[in-house]
Amino acid sequence: MDLLTTDQILTVAVFLGLLVAVAVVVRARGGALRSRIHAGRRMQVIEVTAIGPGERAIMLRIDDRDYLVLSARRGVAQATPLPKGPVPSAEAPQ
Fold first, then answer.
1. Which one, of 76, 51, 78, lies nearest residue 67 by Cα?
2. Distance of alpha carbon 94 from alpha carbon 79, whole angstroms
3. Does 54 reside within a domain?
4. Domain for residue 91, yes or no?
5. Which of 10, 51, 84, 94 could form a disulfide with 55 if both were Cys (CB 3.0 to 4.6 A apart)?
6. 8, 40, 46, 87 from 57: Cα distances, Å
7. pLDDT tens digits, residue range 29-61?
8. What does the buried/exposed string (b/e) look like for 12-34 if buried means 16 or more CB atoms within 10 Å of the residue's CB?
9. Which domain, by its residues, includes 33?
10. What is the count of structural domains for the chain?
């Protein structure tokens, strides 16, 4: 009594071959697929940074405008619009 028949092995091989082919296509055209998926979206997350154990700073871009959102695990989130233009330097002018 065989555990695996030739038909079962062939079915698994064809399925794995199709999976590999789809993976190759997605890797080759990942940028185009990503742009189609995100087309029409007004909001995108630029960066998320952990500030502390329960706090995060999130940079969002909504309609070509940047916002900084500070969120705490047990607190109210605060959103602040960021000014357009060059980012001011942290160094003091000399």
1. 78
2. 32
3. yes
4. no
5. 51
6. 51, 25, 11, 17
7. 877 877 777 777 888 889 999 998 989 999 999
8. eeeeeeeeeeeeeeeeeeeeeee
9. 1-40
10. 2
